[in-house]
């Protein structure tokens, strides 16, 4: 792991091997969009700059590259995010969140109905990978339910079980982070999110 020498948020000099800033409490390694959502655009820009610098110094550092990719997702820069997640999955195929956020980066704000079959197949494969690695996370299941409804059902295609309503019934809603829901809703379009209880 490369050593962080300066806090990405407040600029304080930090000790080697620490993971949180002693002064402002910012995490040095961002591992979720939910965490990034607590920062405004300026804070996310600071993280982005920080990770761009670190990935240049240590291109093989996966933690830094995930941080960079998540900053791109949170800013809606999907083509850049997609490029980073491809590298991450090639080099570290065992990180579940990469497959989920890569899927959001493929959709890139479009209406799910208008995706092509090849993209949908890849997204379904990604959700399978993410679930195999992380278990049934509510945001993974939600994305699958949305695909089943807005792609397969709306386009009048044959649906392999489970159906979208069966998936929704299985979701543990208590475990759904509101920031993950917001990010999901910003990453794709459907006519009505209420169908999916979000
Ligand atoms: Zn700090």
Describe this structure in words.
This protein is mainly alpha-helical and 198 residues long. The chain folds into two domains: 75 residues, no CATH class; 103 residues. 56% of the residues lie in helices and 0% in strands. It contains nine helices and no strands. α5 runs antiparallel to α6. It is elongated and about 55 Å long. 38% of the residues are buried. The site of zinc ion (ZN) has 8 residues, from loops.
For this entry, give a set of tags.
single chain, 198 residues, mainly alpha, 9 helices, 0% strand, binds zinc ion
Write a concise synopsis of the structure shown:
The protein is mostly helical. Bound molecules: zinc ion.
Biggest sheet descriptor: none
SS element count, helices = 9
**Helical residues, percent:** 55-70%
Helical/strand content category: mainly alpha
Mean pLDDT comes to 94
Strand content: under 5%
Number of structural units classed as domains:
2
Topology:
Layout: H1 33-36, H2 41-57, H3 62-74, H4 78-91, H5 96-107, H6 117-134, H7 138-153, H8 164-170, H9 178-187
The structure holds zinc ion.
